[in-house]
Amino acid sequence: MHYIECFGCGDVDGGLHMTSTVGEEHLVRSRFEVTRAHQGAPGLAHGGLLACAFDEALGSAAGNLLRRPAVTGKLETDFLRPVPVGSTLYIVTKLDGVAGRKIYVSANGRLDAEDGPLAVRARALFVEVTFEHFTSHGSADALEKFSQTAGRSREDWDINP
Ligand SMILES: CCCCCCCCCCCCCC(=O)SCCNC(=O)CCNC(=O)[C@H](O)C(C)(C)COP(=O)(O)OP(=O)(O)OC[C@H]1O[C@@H](n2cnc3c(N)ncnc32)[C@H](O)[C@@H]1OP(=O)(O)O
């Protein structure tokens, strides 16, 4: 599910511009190209933005694999290596389990190649929500834009393929 104004996957100035695809063995592969806009220490990615990139990758996996709206309840990150500006993080996310509304996902991010050195590891708990979560806490304008740019209606989420 893609939303053009999403900081993670949308077309936002200084955003992460991430792409995610569902691949073999129900793994979701995401890429994050680290630019100067994502800097913390000179020449290195900001840890908070790396956490954001993993939130996006993990959330994309939960949404695309289960086709249910869910939000991040908890996110843990292990920063194992510095991530330089100019590098690309190859993130692979897997669904670890579902318990009622709770969706457990985890991801590994490798530097510059699918088999590059492991730089960041993350785990998250997403909690399935109803559409009322977005209608009551978000804005009607943003939801309208979402349904136009995503090209889907809320009914699409009722189907679990
Ligand atoms: C039209 C719309 C389309 C939408 C498209 C989708 C786009 C997605 C975009 C994604 C963008 C990227 C992603 C983003 O940026 S998502 C944005 C960041 N996240 C949020 O804003 C979420 C804010 N939090 C909430 O809204 C509520 O707290 C939620 C909904 C999460 C739960 O409140 P709710 O009252 O509903 O449920 P509950 O409290 O009964 O909890 C239910 C169960 O979950 C367990 N639990 C909860 N929290 C935690 C925790 N921290 N650690 C451990 N466990 C936790 C809890 O114990 C319980 O377990 P159990 O007792 O059943 O065993």
UniProtKB/TrEMBL annotation:
EC nos: 3.1.2.2
The protein's enzyme class: hydrolase
Any one Pfam family match given in the protein's UniProt record, by short name: 4HBT
UniProt key word DNA damage: no
Superkingdom in the source lineage: Bacteria
Localization per Swiss-Prot or TrEMBL: Cell projection, Ruffle membrane; Cytoplasm; Membrane
GO BP terms: fatty acid metabolic process
GO cellular component assignments: cytoplasm; membrane
TM annotation in the entry: none
InterPro entries linked to this entry: HotDog_dom_sf (IPR029069), THEM4/THEM5_acyl-CoA_thioest (IPR052365), Thioestr_dom (IPR006683)
Annotated catalysed reactions: dodecanoyl-CoA + H2O = dodecanoate + CoA + H(+); tetradecanoyl-CoA + H2O = tetradecanoate + CoA + H(+); octanoyl-CoA + H2O = octanoate + CoA + H(+); (9Z)-octadecenoyl-CoA + H2O = (9Z)-octadecenoate + CoA + H(+)
Keyword Hydrolase in annotation: yes
Record family assignment: Belongs to the THEM4/THEM5 thioesterase family.
The protein's name: Acyl-coenzyme A thioesterase THEM4
Lineage: Bacteria, Bacillati, Actinomycetota, Actinomycetes, Pseudonocardiales
